From TrEMBL:
Pfam families: HATPase_c_3, HSP90. The gene is htpG. The lineage of its organism: Bacteria, Pseudomonadati, Pseudomonadota, Betaproteobacteria, Burkholderiales. ATP binds at residues 34, 38, 80, 93, 99-101, 122-127, 174, 344. InterPro entries: HATPase_C_sf, HATPase_dom, Heat_shock_protein_90_CS, HSP90_C, Hsp90_fam, Hsp90_N, Ribosomal_Su5_D2-typ_SF. Its main location: cytoplasm. One of its GO terms (molecular function) is unfolded protein binding. This is Chaperone protein HtpG. Residues 1-344 are annotated as: A.
Length: 575
């Protein structure tokens, strides 16, 4: 019944494996974190399925991970009693790349080892990282609920193919055995493994067990050695990090949890951990990443917050917990109120979820506001001062979506935006900075939208503003046009596009200029009439303008009209 079969890896997997084994030497030990994290995921999945089918626990209700090694055989084994894999699942999940994110990753590999290794930082390679230290991996597993003779053994040397065969396996769950490479002997020692586990996996909420070691005296008191006993001990803290008090958690532990849930190897810019009490009770641990993911602009993109209910993992990517414009935020929400069997559909309607979503949004905005405060704080470290600029460079544009999406927080969001302007090449001017520099008599915040900073700066529409020394904000993000439709004023001052309508520079013009303009309008009346007639299908109006200094003419749209930038964008989108 063994039906041994050799199958080929999906092409992307083969590519990934090649990369893993050839360029990931610098941080070898992450393989252990990845494998323990898979074991922990598998236990989460069992717990979740068992909510509807308690029999899945069989006779082993205590979920755990065991890490053991065999010096003679040079093997290291990570075993869990989680959900396990059926034969088909082993073929599917270990032989192909199911996650679109990983597939995208592989498609972006350049072949340049250094650049590719950095990319890995953004994605994580999960199970395949075992091949950094192993030249053969044997996975044995039985899925919870299947009979004991429907186990599977999956074997691969990490080249083009793998083997599967059916085996009897009484115990539920998965064991991953690594046959260590020549140069990976380090991992055959209790102390080394314990120290990696405490660095990377301490926050895992399951117990991680290892065999206890004991000192054994040598014969005749000559030397001695540590030997493994048959007793197992827990080597991590085994309580979910977010359930502990803030004061008992180190920055390193927070960062480790972040890496684990985000698959981002760069540390986060900031995090915020709170227990919220009151009508709706929950714990939130939210992180701001330091880099935008490659798929930031995909609004379908998986949300980054995991939902737990009373410490039981419920789902990844719970998009109901934050508005879409905060889709880059990573973290965990653990609710005490939601039912354990809550579904995505239920989440959308729950009043508790609405309260959680508002609470989480406020927290995230407060975190960003804190970064902005540090920017101008003399006492802050150089590193802290730079964090807001970094945040803004990575996520400022997506934050603008919030102007349209989150009315309740529109003003808070507007304060967090920064722009380049005719007086600043750096994208660092806030609306408040702008207001502080407004000219005597100036009544609006002026801005121009364009595809690029160069196009914005060279627009003829800016001529009179330049002449008058009036600052104009340059908006060149793709979302600007859309987002600004929702923001009509800032702190009592209207926002005005320089490309719309008759920009009324009224009080900013001196008497002689006004007079000249009026005279010109009179003088050119017959010409204007003829132009209007000639352009009647193409232009709504033709008028003498004060906005140009050097250029003879420019196009503008009416106040209520779509701006040209938006029109161009819609045209590009085929509308
Ligand atoms: P990820 O964990 O991000 O999904 P991995 O490469 O780490 O990606 O793992 C690939 C898949 O292999 C997992 O999604 C899971 O289906 C399966 N898998 C890996 N390890 C285990 C395990 N210990 N128990 C059950 N399934 C596992
Ligand atoms: Mg994984």
């Amino acid at each position: 019944m063994s039906q041994k079969k050799t199958l080929s890896f999906q092409a992307e997997v083969a590519q990934l494996l090649h990369l893993v084994t050839h360029s990931l030497y610098s941080n070898k030990e992450i393989f252990l974190r990845e494998l323990i994290s898979n074991a922990s995921d598998a236990c989460d999945k069992l717990r979740f399925e068992a909510l509807h089918n308690n029999a899945l626990y069989e006779d082993q209700p205590n979920l755990e991970v065991r890490v053991s090694f065999d010096r003679q055989a040079r093997t290291l084994t990570i075993a869990d009693n989680g959900i396990g894999l059926s034969r088909d699942e082993a073929i599917e999940n270990l032989g192909t790349i199911a996650k679109s994110g990983t597939r995208e990753f592989v498609s972006r590999l350049t072949g340049d080892q250094k650049a590719d290794a950095q990319l890995i930082g953004q994605f994580g390679v999960g199970f395949y990282s075992g091949f950094i230290v192993a030249d053969r991996i044997v996975v044995e597993s039985r899925r919870a609920g299947l009979p004991p003779d429907e186990g599977v053994r999956w074997t691969s040397a990490g080249a083009g193919d793998f083997e599967v065969e059916s085996i009897p396996r009484p115990q539920r769950g998965t064991s991953v055995t690594l046959h260590l490479r020549e140069d990976a002997g380090d991992y055959l020692g209790t102390w080394k493994l314990k120290s990696i586990i405490s660095r990377y996996s301490d926050h895992i909420s399951l117990p991680i067990l290892m065999r206890k070691e004991e000192w054994k005296e040598g014969e005749d008191n000559k030397g001695g050695e540590m030997v493994l006993t048959d007793e197992w001990e827990t080597v991590n803290q085994a309580s979910a990090l977010w359930t502990r008090a803030r004061k008992d958690i180190t920055a390193e532990q927070y960062q480790e949890l972040y890496k684990q849930i985000s698959h981002d190897h760069e540390p986060p810019l900031a995090w915020s951990h709170n227990r919220v009490e009151g009508a709706t009770e929950y714990t939130q641990l939210l992180y701001l990443p330091s880099r935008a993911p490659f798929d930031l602009w995909n609004r379908e993109k998986a949300a980054g917050v995991k939902l737990y209910v009373k410490r039981v993992f419920i789902m990844d990517e719970a998009e109901a917990l934050l508005p879409s414009y905060l889709r880059f935020v990573k973290g965990v929400v653990d609710s005490s109120d939601l039912p354990l069997n809550v579904s995505r559909e239920l989440l959308q309607e729950s009043r508790d979820v609405k309260a959680i979503r508002e609470g989480c949004t406020k927290r995230v905005l407060a975190m960003i506001e804190d970064l902005a405060k540090h920017e101008k704080d003399e006492a802050a470290s150089e590193e802290d001062k730079g964090k807001f600029a970094q945040f803004h460079a990575e996520f400022g544009a997506v934050l603008k979506e919030g102007l349209g999406e989150d009315m309740a927080n529109r003003e808070r969001l507007a304060k967090l935006l920064r722009f380049a302007s005719t007086q600043s090449d750096a994208v660092s001017v806030s609306f408040a900075d702008y207001k502080a520099r407004m000219k005597e008599g100036q009544e609006a915040i002026y801005y121009i939208t364009a595809d690029t900073p160069a196009a914005a700066k060279n627009s003829p529409q800016l001529e009179v503003f330049r002449k008058k020394g009036i600052e104009v904000l340059l908006m060149t993000d793709r979302v600007d046009e859309w987002a600004l439709n929702f923001l009509h004023e800032f702190d009592g001052t209207p926002l005005q596009s320089v490309a719309k309508g008759a920009v009324d520079l009224g009080k900013l013009l001196d008497e002689s200029e006004k007079q000249a303009a009026e005279e010109a309008a009179e003088t050119f009346k017959p010409v204007l009439e003829r132009l209007k007639e000639a352009l009647k299908d193409k232009a709504q109006d033709v008028r003498v303008t004060t906005r140009l200094v050097d250029s003879p003419a420019c196009l503008v749209v009416t106040d209520s009209g779509m701006s040209m930038q938006l029109a161009r964008m819609l045209k590009q989108a085929g509308q």
